[in-house]
Amino acid sequence: MGRTYTQRTIKILSMRSGGLCAYPNCNQHLITEASNGIDPDVVIGEIAHIFAYSDGGPRPNPSQTQEDRNDYENLIFLCRNHHIIVDQQDVAHSVETLLKWKVAHEKRVATSVGDKVPEVTSAELEIVAKASVSRVLCK
């Protein structure tokens, strides 16, 4: 199956992350706009696996199916720097730690935008969701 994600998974992950790195106190924007108006936006966010993508990766779970490995529940959005740190320092960044970060980050995002959601139309949400999906770097 490989590192493939359904559009639904990408939409849920990107919307719930608020387009920000979930590493504590980072909150790096995962898309950087072009500085000169000519170059394209740059995606600096990466989809990281909580349980490893493969049995030989960081935080492996051999009983997990490939489908489960690429599902929203097993994914977290991080900036490139923190993705590398989390995967190369997997003892300090356990499954439990990453799950706590994900839940806390998504709660912060939901709380910070919660008051604004009633002001957003469904047409605007559709535009944001399509833009998020088209810009996500699937690693």
Care to describe what's here?
The chain has 139 residues and is mostly helical. The chain has one domain (7-135). The chain is 42% helix and 10% strand. The protein contains 5 helices and 4 strands, in the order αβββαβααα. It has helices at 7-17, 66-69, 80-88, 95-114, 122-135, and strands at residues 31-32, 42-43, 45-49, 75-79. The strands form 2 sheets. A two-stranded antiparallel ribbon has the order 1-2. Helix 1 (7-17) packs across helix 5. The longest helix is centred in the last third of the chain and has 20 residues, at 95-114. The radius of gyration is 15 Å and the shape is globular. The mean pLDDT is 87.
Task: Give the biggest sheet.
Answer: 2 strands, antiparallel
What is the count of structural domains? 1
Work out the oligomeric state of the chains in this entry. single chain
| Model regions low in confidence, pLDDT < 50 over at least 5 residues | none
Net shape: globular
Order of helices and strands: HEEEHEHHH
Q: What's the Cα radius of gyration?
A: 15 Å
Alpha carbon gap, first and last residue: 13 Å
SS summary, helix count: 5
- The beta-strand count equals 4
Mean of all residue-level pLDDT scores: 87
Helix content: 40-55%
If strands are numbered along the chain, what order do they take across the biggest sheet? 1-2
Strand content: 5-15%
- Structural class of the helices, strands and pairings? mainly alpha
